[in-house]
């Protein structure tokens, strides 16, 4: 009886044994401190902490696994549709491009990282073609241009913002959905705490930013009200909200018609007690700066305006059960 050997199997076994002979395997791919490291001459494959959005080695790119969104957990649907996507193979292990939508840092090739130059002027032309209720054929016609000219610059911008302040590293850039609104507006969020985030939206109206605590978890509203009713923290929030309003932000949210039960109707901060969510939003405009790296500075400046409000919410609301 003759024995047949599949050539691919031989090559695979030779490769595996060759790597072991070189001292490169799962157990030996860590440094002396137990951190994941990249064997010389091989593409870096994320392991351990790197797969959870943290880098063991600051010089390595960050990845984050795709998480399944459950209905009701977010203010909008899942961060991206479940569909097959192309892969990136430039210098890294092949990972789906879709990982960039829900990662704390995007797996861009080196030529794209740190090179946000603004939205191209053609991005406005693409969004203009998608106005109204575009047919499916029209969406597919402009899909590649919209990804390249509208969505990818948003990812590059948020990478720049995250490089400036590590608090802004956990972000999502939304994909498109069946509703035409998502094709006409490119949304993104930066998560600072549970249900506390900075939101960005790019459209024909320009760039819009908001700081929000919304769609709260059970218990968060009661925790918020107790902090508002407490003299020290309540007075602090009242002053912060007034300062943000003076900077041109609209203060809104899910507001009750009457004060909540258990609190006096003549409470000094009854207007804040009525809030079941709190949003501060402002349009940043659509000037020529949108097409330049100045957009990063505009976003960081607006984030600084919202910092005191969002940090108050993180301290007093984030840990609610």
Describe the structure.
With 321 residues, the chain is of the alpha+beta class. It has a domain at 122-316: Protein of unknown function DUF1054 (BirA Bifunctional Protein, domain 2). Helix content is 34%, strand content 13%. It has 8 helices and 8 strands; from the N terminus they run αββααβαβββααβαβα. The protein has a 6-stranded antiparallel beta sheet. Strand 5 and strand 6 form a beta hairpin. Helix 3 crosses helix 8 and helix 6 (231-246) runs antiparallel to helix 8 (294-316). It is elongated, with a radius of gyration of 24 Å. The termini are far apart. The model is unreliable at 3-113 (pLDDT under 50).
Structural features:
single chain; 321 residues; alpha+beta; BirA Bifunctional Protein, domain 2; six-stranded antiparallel sheet; two-stranded antiparallel ribbon; 8 strands; disordered N terminus; CHP02453
Outline the fold blueprint.
Blueprint: H1 7-21, E1 87-88, E2 95-96, H2 122-129, H3 136-164, E3 171-173, H4 180-184, E4 186-193, E5 196-203, E6 206-213, H5 220-229, H6 231-246, E7 250-252, H7 270-273, E8 278-285, H8 294-316
Shape: elongated
Q: Ends: how far apart?
A: 69 Å
Average per-residue pLDDT, rounded, comes to: 74
What share of the residues lie within helices? 25-40%
Number of strands: 8
Q: What is the level 1 CATH name of the domain at 122-316?
A: Alpha Beta
| CATH-assigned homologous superfamily of the domain at 122-316 | Protein of unknown function DUF1054
Strand order of the largest sheet: 3-4-5-6-8-7
Rg from Cα: 24 Å
What structural class do you assign from the helix and strand content? alpha+beta
Largest sheet: 6 strands, antiparallel
CATH architecture annotation of the domain at 122-316: 2-Layer Sandwich
Task: Indicate the low-confidence ranges by residue numbers.
Answer: 3-113
Order of helices and strands: HEEHHEHEEEHHEHEH
What is the oligomeric state here?
single chain
CATH names the topology of the domain at 122-316 as BirA Bifunctional Protein, domain 2
Strand content bin? 5-15%
Number of helices: 8
Pfam family, one: DUF2461
């Amino acid at each position: 009886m003759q024995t047949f050997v599949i050539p691919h199997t031989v090559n695979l076994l030779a490769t595996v044994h060759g790597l072991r002979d070189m001292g490169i395997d799962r157990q030996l791919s860590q440094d002396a401190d137990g951190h994941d490291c990249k064997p010389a001459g091989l593409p870096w494959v994320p392991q351990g902490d790197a797969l959870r959005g943290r880098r063991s080695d600051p010089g390595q790119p960050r990845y984050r696994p795709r998480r399944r969104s459950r209905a009701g957990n977010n203010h909008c649907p899942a961060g991206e549709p479940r569909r097959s996507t192309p892969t990136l193979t430039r210098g890294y292990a092949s990972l789906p491009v879709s990982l960039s939508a829900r990662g704390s840092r995007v797996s861009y090739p080196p030529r794209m990282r740190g090179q946000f130059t603004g939205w191209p002027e053609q991005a406005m032309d693409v969004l203009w073609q998608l106005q109204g209720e575009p047919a499916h054929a029209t969406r597919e016609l402009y899909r590649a241009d919209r990804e390249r000219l509208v969505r990818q610059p948003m990812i590059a911008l948020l990478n720049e913002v995250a490089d400036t302040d590590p608090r802004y590293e956990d972000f999502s850039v939304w994909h498109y959905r069946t509703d035409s609104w998502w094709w006409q507006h490119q949304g993104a969020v930066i998560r600072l705490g549970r249900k506390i985030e900075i939101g960005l939206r790019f459209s024909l109206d320009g760039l819009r930013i908001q700081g929000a605590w919304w769609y709260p978890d059970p218990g968060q509203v009661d925790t918020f009200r107790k902090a508002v009713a407490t003299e020290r923290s309540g007075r602090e929030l009242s002053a912060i909200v007034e300062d943000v309003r003076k900077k041109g932000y609209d203060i809104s949210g899910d507001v009750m018609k009457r004060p909540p039960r258990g609190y006096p109707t003549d409470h000094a901060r009854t207007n804040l007690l009525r809030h079941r969510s709190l949003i501060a939003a402002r349009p940043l405009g659509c000037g020529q700066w949108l097409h330049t790296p100045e957009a990063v500075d505009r976003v960081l400046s607006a984030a600084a305006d919202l910092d005191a409000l969002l940090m108050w919410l993180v301290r007093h609301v984030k840990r609610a059960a």
